[in-house]
Amino acid sequence: MTKNETVIGVWPTLVYRDGQAALKFLTEGLGFTLVASYPGAAEGSIAHAELAWPPGGGVMVSSADRNAEPNEFDKLTEQSQSVYLVHDAPDALLAQAIAAGATIVRELRDEDYGSRGFSVADPEGNLWSVGTYRGEIR
Q1: Which candidate, 69, 30, 34, 29, places its Cα nearest to that of 48?
Q2: Quick one: pLDDT at residue 128?
Q3: Residue-wise pLDDT tens digits, 25-65
Q4: From residue 98, how far is each of 5, 26, 34, 60, 115 by CA, in Å?
Q5: Phi-psi label, residue 135: left if phi above 0, alpha if psi -120 to 50, beta otherwise
């Protein structure tokens, strides 16, 4: 690995009933960039998609019906999943997320630990928290 090469070592993976709608929400509502998308076995489903998050990192997305046979990952659509995103301008991003179909779970606010952020639920109920807190890992 070269000095300038970055390895993303953690990839939250979310499974959606409607993977295509999820990609639309994540790109238009939260500002992810679609990097790769591969079709699943069922028409319109997604076997695997990767979305990049600025300033770094990303998520993987698939449709529950991506395989010919159901599997353990498909059960994820029956429960809420949660991801935290670092963003320098959460105020502006909140309006964009709502316009794309998000429901506010936690209003925009300043936290005691120095972050400013909010939490929304996507159209399938997964929670997306967005804030300025970058964590202590460096």
Answers
A1: 34
A2: 97
A3: 999 999 999 999 999 988 899 999 999 998 789 999 999 88
A4: 35, 12, 20, 22, 20
A5: left
Domain count across the chain: 1
Single-letter amino acid code for the residue at 70: P
Single pTM value for the model: 0.89
CATH number at residue 65: 3.10.180.10
Give the pLDDT band of residue 68 (cuts 50, 70, 90): low
76: its two tokens: 């994820």
Cβ contacts of 117 within 8 Å, gap of 6 or more: 87, 90, 108, 109, 111, 129, 130, 131, 132, 133
Determine, yes or no, domain membership for 79. Answer: yes
Report yes or no on 29 lying in a domain: yes
Output helix, strand, coil percentages for the chain, rounded to the nearest 5: 20, 35, 45
State the CB neighbour count (10 A cutoff) for residue 1.
6
Tokens of 118: 């909010």
What is the domain extent for residue 43?
13-131
Q: Are 8 and 32 in contact (CB under 8 A)?
A: no
Q: Which two tokens stand for residue 45?
A: 């489903």
Residue 40's SS3 state is coil
